[in-house]
Amino acid sequence: MGLLPFRGADSQTLRAGDEKGKTTLMSKRFTITRKPLLLLGISAILLLVMACAPDAKQSTFGTSGPVAEQQLLLFNVLLWVMIVVFVLVEGVLLYAIIKFRRRPGQDELPPQTHGHTALEITWTIVPTILILGLGIWSAITLFNLDQPPAGADALEITAVGHQWWWEFEYPDADGNGKYISTANELKVPVDRAVRVNLRSDDVIHSFWIPKLAGKIDMVPTRENYMWFQADETGTFYGQCAEFCGTAHAQMKFLVQVLPQEDYLDWAERFGETPVLSAQAQAGQSVFNGTGGCLVCHTATGSDDPAVVDSRMQSFLTTETGIAPGPNLTDLATRERFGAGLVDMNRQNLRQWIRNPEDVKPGNHMSGRAAIYQTSDGRANLSETEITSLLEYLLSLK
Amino acid sequence: MATLTDVIDRPSGESGLWSWITTVDHKRIGVLYGVTAFIFLLLGGIEAGIIRLQLSVPDSTLVSADTFNQMFTMHGTTMIFLVIMPLSASFFNFVIPLAIGARDVAFPRLNAFSYWVFLFGGLLLNASFLTNQAPDAGWFSYANLTEKPFSANQGLDYWALGLQVLGVSSLAAAFNFIVTIVNMRAPGMSLMRMPLFVWMTLVTSILLVLAFPVITVGLIELTFDRNFGTNFFVPEGGGDPILWQHLFWVFGHPEVYILILPAMGIVSEVLPTFSRKPLFGYPVVVFSGVVIGIMGWAVWSHHMFTVGLGPVAVTVFMITTMLIAVPTGVKIFNWIGTLWGGQIDLKTAMLFALGFVALFIVGGLSGVSHAVAPSDNQQQDTYYIVAHIHYVLFGGALFGIFAGVYYWFPKLTGKLFHEGLGKLHFWLYFIGMNVTFFPMHYLGLNGMPRRIYTYASEFGWDGLNLLASLGYLVLFVGTLIFMVNILISLRKEPDAGHDPWDAPGLEWSIASPPPSYNFAKIPEVEGLDHYWIVKRRAAAEGRPVTEPEAYVDPSTIHMPDPSYWPLVTAIGVLVLAAGMLFDTGWDYIRFPIPFIGGIICFIGIIAWANEPPAKEHAGGDHHAEDGHGMAHHPATATAAVMERPAGAAGVTVRLLCSNCGNQLSSSFRFCPYCGGAVESPADPDHQEG
């Protein structure tokens, strides 16, 4: 799309156009005929609608579920109030500028008014009432959205923010007390409230799935929570919203909303021992041996909390020691890796293993894992080792 | 130290580089502030350019993540602390003494000290680029990302120490202007006759005095955490990163009003002048400014709606934040009321002031939409907020400041800006500003978070980002046009006259540029818009006022002499702060350099206190028998001499300190130059103000 229609897209510029029309009156040097102005107006409205782009992957306009919907409803009402106030106030302003311009030969002073008490009281009281009304409604929405509706059998999940990936724990994934810990892809059932406990073990992050719910921060010293409910199946996109360091831009995640039975199926099958080919078995020994991967990553079922704690301690107290890494169980079933960053396929994964720094600058694997402490940052592994490691990782399903 | 001040003569030159370095003249200090801040504006603008260039296309690899993080951190910090605040300070300096009918600020040397400390603070902050350790945790530097495990290099130390130094400057300046405005108004200028800009400066200065100590505490705690092993914000040590957020925003939200209120004051001067009618609802505008200043303390947690404060706390801050829109709206309505029925002259200054009003409305409205917490949950930390802050700080504060530049430039230089280039500058800024920042509303609502150095094309943010980057180019050209305009205008012959806009303020009754003493006769203020009253009475009597006040021999008016010591003391402050960056690693003396800085400060302050007047002023004058006159025997300086030269427009009272001979406002209880007590004149006619 070209520059001009886009400029129309913003109603500010449109008004700038109007004011340019006004300069016309003033200087009589430029003339803007009404026709382009009209066209500009139409394209502005069209693009205004298009720019809202509810289809975009992280659009807050394309909501699914009660939380995001109520937040959008509130915003939409505010938006219309804003548009009305905007048109009225800017309209009066523009009218005053045009109407009361000094004409040549106007030497007499205009009436020297100093104020108007009734007006002052009116334009203090009216906005106050308007704002209190909106405020009360907002407060009601705020309290309503605080907790999942009473009686809803909410799925409980704990999300932990790490630099720069997400850990998801299900204390009771299948209703029978199965504990699951996984990373970067959240699987939830459709039409069921999900209550997410938000924690962080390092710095502050913010958990945000624009189409499902607004963000809440993950603070190391707080037990925060939020909830959402997806009304349709599919993939939703989430992103860290609080600046958390070098790779903040690449701290993303996916939410896969599954039909209830598919979700239960996934929960039951999670952590089953994968079938490994001979090459994959060679890869497994690289993972556990020369590669040293298992120091930070668990690939066989959920993480033992004690192991996670010791990794975290090392991360916080040393500059080069190990750090907690995403759980890799069922890695091959994931749509993406690198915290929602790149598609899961052999080629991308090979590139990642060779040198993660190329894909995600600043990541702690490059910074801390022993095999990457080389002059060029490439893994200290042979091509054969990398190939078998790949085979192993792609068998994790 | 008396020996030191005996050996080194007090400087007295009035031209050349040294005269600028040692100046204590508020007008020159205003220029220093303005020029320095403008250079920082260019620097911050280049940082913005790198940000926009990087984001103009998806998956850009122009700069690395770390460089990008440094850019947005330094862009925000620079624009707030090194551009908008000092540009406002530049107007405080140049305009306030002129607008209240004073010959200088209350503490001229402290004023010079403020400037030098500001300059050194800015240099210290930017010196981080030289060691490739620019701060990279955002202008808000949220703990605990700022702690050693996550920010190993010294970037955050530069940041914290730089802001501490800048805080010293802001506090010194704020106290100076509070005392100046409270004590040094010309006779007759009661509080409710003060121009709006003076009012807003007073409110801003009070906010500064109250807000800066809070960030100072936070910065000290951060510095201690990073260098001395404390745990204020370290969760593992029992600290709480949320404490930082509270400290930062208890400072940070009043700071927002510190940035915008001076611009509102400027606009409240410009709109009446170019509408040829007084400000509509003056008392209401004053009061709403004060109310904004007070309410600004009760809204800080709206920056923290997603932190998890709980619905009760969030509701309280939501309602207070929404209510602050009321006094802000009242101001806007009164500005429109000022235009209504006027005769509007669209000079460049007026265009910028109108642009301020038009754009501030947008910023104000989007502000209400994230005052509403549930709606803010989607907007917090997205480009929607970026759009909002640029509408209030670029469209608002900076447009207001440019209105002031175009308005007072003729007073400063005696020359008029080139109007055509000025208007071109305005339209480039107005269009460029909207093209750059309006699309960001959509970007934010379409899910683009702030502070990301790259994004994938799949999210559909590319087109609008490119548009925003093109808008930056328009702003860039606009800034070049402004610089060209300044260069062209400065080379012109003086053509402005003393009152080119038929303005109401006291400052327009004297020559342009103003003589060093400002007012030969301190005016007797007859009402709000004093100069309009004078001119219109004269016109009614058939003798229009066209001449500025006549020049007098400056040697007959005692003005404070230039001084080295503010600069020396400021250097001490710099060494003290920057020395904290050098850790020797020895067990016993880890940080020796700050002690050297402290010693320099000490010498500077003692010499400052004992400084005699310059030699040529110390001679036969009545005020300095021993050559040290100014401060040696303050206890004996008790009587004030009152002169009553008969003027055409009535009797003007001049109070002279009997100790140092400085001219005083009748409201003084003590002489600000030498500290001697002043006895009130017995004449009851001149007790007002």
Q: Can you describe this structure?
A:
The complex is a heterodimer of chains A (397) and B (689). Chain A is built from 12 helices and 12 strands. By secondary structure, chain A is an alpha+beta fold. Chain A has a 5-stranded mixed beta sheet with strand order 3-2-1-5-8. A 5-stranded mixed beta sheet of chain A has the order 4-10-9-6-7. Chain A has a two-stranded antiparallel sheet with strand order 11-12. In chain A, helix 1 (3-9) crosses helix 3 (34-52). Chain A is elongated. With 689 residues, chain B is mostly helical. Chain B has 2 domains: 23-491, Cytochrome c oxidase-like, subunit I domain (Cytochrome C Oxidase, Chain A, Up-down Bundle), CATH 1.20.210.10; 634-689, no CATH class. A 3-stranded antiparallel beta sheet of chain B has the order 1-4-5, with no helix packed on it. In chain B, a hairpin with a 2-residue loop joins strand 2 and strand 3 (650-651). In chain B, helix 7 (196-228) packs antiparallel against helix 8.
Task: Supply database-style keywords.
heterodimer; A: 397 residues; alpha+beta; Immunoglobulin-like; five-stranded mixed sheet; 12 strands; disordered N terminus; B: 689 residues; mainly alpha; Cytochrome C Oxidase, Chain A; 2 domains; three-stranded antiparallel sheet; 21 helices; globular
As laid out across the biggest beta sheet of chain A, the strand order is: 3-2-1-5-8
The first-level CATH class name of the largest domain in chain B: Mainly Alpha
| DSSP, total strands of chain B | 5
The CATH architecture of the largest domain in chain B can be given as Up-down Bundle
CATH class of one domain in chain A: Mainly Beta
Main sheet overview of chain A: 5 strands, mixed
Percent in strands of chain B: under 5%
Radius of gyration of chain A: 28 Å
CATH fold-level topology of the largest domain in chain B: Cytochrome C Oxidase, Chain A
Structural class of chain A: alpha+beta
Task: Provide the succession of SSEs of chain A.
Answer: HHHHHEEEEEEEEEEHHHEEHHHH
- By CATH, the architecture of one domain in chain A is named Sandwich
Number of domains of chain B: 2
Structural class of chain B: mainly alpha
Radius of gyration of chain B: 26 Å
What percent of the residues of chain A sit in helical stretches (DSSP H or I)?
Answer: 40-55%
Count of discrete alpha- or pi-helical segments spanning 4 or more residues of chain B: 21
How many angstroms separate the termini of chain B? Answer: 39 Å
* Strand neighbour order, sheet with most strands of chain B: 1-4-5
Greatest interface: A-B, 108 and 102 residues
